[in-house]
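Exercise (ungraded).
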Amino acid sequence: MRVILETKVRPKPFLPIEAESIIPRNFLKGTDLTVYEGNKERALSEIFWIFVEGTAVSPDKVEVVLKGDTARIKRVGEYMDTGIIRIAGDIGMHCGNFMSGGLIEIGGNADAWLGREMLNGRIFCRGNAGHYCASGYRGEKHGMKGGSVEVMGNAGDFCAEYLTGGTVHIHGSCGDMPGVEMKGGQLVIGGDATRPCGNMKAGTCMVFGTVHYMLPTFRKTGTQVLPDRKVTMDVYTGDVANRGKGTLMIASRAHFP
Amino acid sequence: MTELLVKNACVIDPLNGILLETMDIPVRDGKIVSSVSSAADVIDARGCLTLPGGIDSHSHVCGTKVNFGRYMSPEDMRAGRTARRGKMHVTSGYYVPTTFGNSYRYSTMGYTTVLEGAMAPLEARHTHEEFTATPHQDMLANTLFDGNWAIMESVRERDFKKTAAIVAWTLAAVKGYSIKLTNPGGTEAWGWGDDLSSIHDPVPNFNVTPAEIIAAMIEANELLGLPHSVHLHCNNLGKPGNYRTTLETFDLVPDKNNARQTLYATHVQFHAYGGTTWRDINSKAEEITRSVNAKPQIVMDMGQIMFGRTMTMTADGPMEFNLYCLHHNKWSNHDVELETGSGIIPVLYSKKSLVNCVMWAIGLELALLTKDPYQCLLATDNPNGAPFVKYPEIIGLLMSRRYRDEEFATLHEGTGQRTAIASIDREMDWNEIAVMTRAGQAKALGMAAQGKGHLGEGAEADIAIYPIRCHAVDPATEYRKVVEGFQKTMFTIKRGRVVARDGEVIVEGANSTFWVNPSVPEDLSVRNDPEFVRKFREYYTVRMDNYPVQDVYLPRGKCIRTEGAL
Amino acid sequence: MIIKDVVCPFCGCLCDDLDVEVEGQKVIKVQNGCALAEAKFTGSGRLPAPIRRTPTGWDDVSYDDAIRETAEILVAADRPLLYGWSSTHGDAQSMGVHIAELIGGVIDNTSTVCHGPSILAIQEVGHPGCTLGQVKNRADVIVYWGCNPTEAHPRHMSRYTTFATGFFVPEAQKDRTVIVVDTRRTESAEIADEFIRIERGGDYEVLSALRAIVRGKGNVVPKMVAGVSREQLFRVAEICKKAKFGAIFFGLGLTMSAGKYKNVRNAIELTDELNRHTKFTISPLRGHGNVYGSNEVFTWITGYPYAVDFSRGIAFYNPGETTAVDILRRGECDAALIVASDPGAHFPHAAAAHLAKIPTVLIDPHMTATTPLCRIQIPCTIAGIDAEGTAYRMDGVPIRYRKVITSSYPDDADILKKIHDRIREVQGS
Amino acid sequence: MKAILNTGRTVPQGEAVEHKASPTYRAVVSVCYMNPVDLMELGITEGAHVAVTSRTGRIVLTTWTSEGVSRGEIFVPLGPYANHIIAPETHATGMPDFKGETVDIVPTDEPVKDVGSLMEEIGGLRYDH
């Protein structure tokens, strides 16, 4: 089954929409769902033109497609456990929060907190991701615990903060402090990074571009050749400011202190 | 004039010797009376269990440290969120809920009076502000004196009258109810990052010992004729082997008051550990209860822990630092100049942890091995042992051996060797539960005279009606019904007004705060003591005139004047 | 008439030892206070009556009409923002939260552009702190990090630290070692025994290095860290470890620089580490008079210290998303109520500009930089001058503001109460 | 000249903070504190005006020398002048970069605007009573 949601023109297009109801499972029972626009509860049909193609007997066979001006729609795919969500353009904050299964594909950019506290499943973003991509929540000690987030463009600051499990792959560059407070999982940064892995306790972070403002509390333990990538990595352990036993690997040619 | 008649109530009122009698309760203008007119509103209790409003004699719900617990815990606020509904404000939080969250949950459980376990005098205004935002319970504030410089100096000089005068001035100034000592002397040592390891260690720079502070404060308390006794959080909380300190402390306590105990020892579960390290920790509940059973001058509360996440918060700063070193989670500390300290850290009590299982067992053992339920009251040191919403489960555990056995079977396998819980047959009856949750508290706090904790004529009409038909339920086997029944009242009546019904709070509250103003002869008043005034000016960062809590903070304050022997 | 022991409402020190001389309805002299206190008490130029913006200018309007219109604006909004709350007392703050609850609004306070990041840090790792008297009576090592008390909290040093005598510190200047850490050689730095000058944005690195040294892992630390020599870092770590009681105070140098709350978190974790060796505390130097009170009040009612979003009925919190600057920057809100603060002056103008596009109501005694942006301004009393109420000092100590003069202005809490009641009427709740 | 903008409190700013329309307030918050060497490099003396441009705006300020300010940095007291050029981006923390914005500085003869004008530039309407 395919559910296509195309945004209607709204009188106040700047208002954020909270749409945690948009997960594949919910559409098995129809499209009689609601979302919040600011402090007003709206029927899904007030916000979207809704087209349903085919039928499905189980949620994993449901594909939800979002089109139009979706950049301010938040929480799409929150608590999603199966099925597929495809977003043609940009998507608002908290896309895929607590996701435990299924696939979210984003054609444009994702706003902040993409895949926050994710448990499993897969998020694929063709554009850039905002701040706190694949991160934790205020006050909570665990961030993303499993699954994978792949971003073809760049990610903002605090990417993979508190990463606890799963893999985060940013093909472009990260902003400030990727992998800060990391305690597990794997973070791969294809481009550059500023001050990676502060206070890291465990897990692995690889940076293939340039590291700006390397933190002073990582101890170099050697080098490692990654044959499949044809690159030598400097290997550090840290963060020794903490009790950290994490691994930070930086492409050898590109490490400027 | 407003009148109310509660009909067909199945009443347990231990202080008046009423046990499961079906009767009517007439109420006029907030008090229980002998009869009401035919115009009275009528509530039909339909033979359900009807008790005096519940009283929590030791709970942390209001003030600087509690609010800091909330402030640092956005992760907890994600639990237990409710939207504004009817007369109810928004609430957030599970183990450190907002003030309205606390108030609504207590109210729907039938609780109408709560003693805040620890108020730092310098920050009393904050506690009182939150009291007014906890509108469905009458509130009392335990006032901290454990590291009070002026007190320690007077104890060193062995001037009990002066000790009493300082207590009197402080209680009146900060609108406190009773004397609280938390790790006496230890909180001052923590000012330097140290602690005391026995009640005979001298406090650094002050040359007094915890034992001397405790003894002197008991003297002062009785000299002033305060309604409640000294309320003590013993030294060495949470340390394996600490039961010796607790027993030594109990041995210090004379029997000085016919109406009530001379010492209230709080959350004794945390003070009843044998062993030498966390590896060989074991229960010393038998030793502790043996002492208490022989000493009518002591009342304690359980300090029961229940499994799950919660927040520990106490004036015992050094203890919290030790706990932080074990858990490596977040740690807050807040020392209060010239007075006390405090610490806060979140914890998870897990059935996988042998230590936690032993703690769980000790709390229950204390209650079950204390012969007189008036001597061991039900409390979790909310939220330290568990949030108070767990009380119904504790009641279930106390009333049903089967429930205990079922729980025990899920615990760490080493629990049986470290504790005696599995061999205890006692199952508490309805009356004992009523004592442990209201009558005992009222007596221990000296609040029975204020009309709390009983349903006799003249009492405050604080009444809890639970959907439990005692004659039709066997708590030993149907403990689930007991637990559910105590979770939500059919009616909670506060001062003659129905405030909660079937788990919903239905009115805006308007509580009272009880506080004590002991009379002190003018020549003893510390206000007239130039040395006291000078030290206040030089060492506090707040002026003496700005220190007292103004009346405006207690819109419905109830002052208890005491005439002591000073 | 001289009123003694008056509380100064200017900064988070809330000094309560001022002697204020009053003649009629005017303060003519302030003793004991700093220059900021004097300016605050003797200030003039208050807005005389409520004003309302018209297409061509400004009209006077009655309090009743202003209140009625404010209620209508707020009820009609889909995403109202209620911001400010630091220069007033607890009753007004509490009423503000209840209004936000009623209308499904977002309520935020000035900590958002002050110590909001410190709160985020505390929510990750806690806060080993103490009251100011504890520092005054005990501290032999004082660290000022990224702050300049000489300018922002002029009496902090004389009342509590560098120049204050305390019970265990009878000779302040001899008994205390003062360390200042900053990117600028400020006047505070001139007074220090040790000045650490950090390259801009280097706080996190320096804090990490100090943590490693205190943990005995100093061998990893390179020769220079963000412009600070290894030798100086080791020397300072040693001073701290040898302290009997150390106290770190930090300011906006940490919260506003890159990394924001992670800088503060690192400083707190350094403090935690030092506590394994001696006694150490850390405290933010809170700015606006009662800003800490707004955090306290928000917390006991909603569970969160700032940035609370009620649009879904329940309280939701996520700084960065529900904070005032972000909501304005994204142009999300469609009405605003500003109380006791001046976002026109203190927010980036690209964010503040949105206030002019929507119906904005300002409740403030003075004409401010927000006045030109608003549709209605309602003048009120000034907490601590012609209104009394509760305020929380930077260390959490609650103090009651005095009322030293009587004016004809209504208390902002009363104005808000009327708005609240009017909203309930309109909503029929 | 490129520089890093730092903002913060000063006593005069605090004293005048409740008189936003006053000439005093304008005078004390429309100041650009600079290292004297940087000032020399710009070829101006203390008191001359500079136009400071950032990603989001442009503002004219009066220069003031300060030995405490490092070379390559400027310090502007917090207020509407500094905020005219500070970006509203908060890195999803709620807090803009009040310290650390990159700016470009050139000498100018333009006058320093008053607060009312600044607010009118962003859609406000000055209130003169």
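Further reading is listed at the end of the chapter. For now, observe: Residues 21 and 115 of chain D are 6 Å apart (CA to CA). Chain D touches chain A at residues 91-92 (CB under 8 Å).
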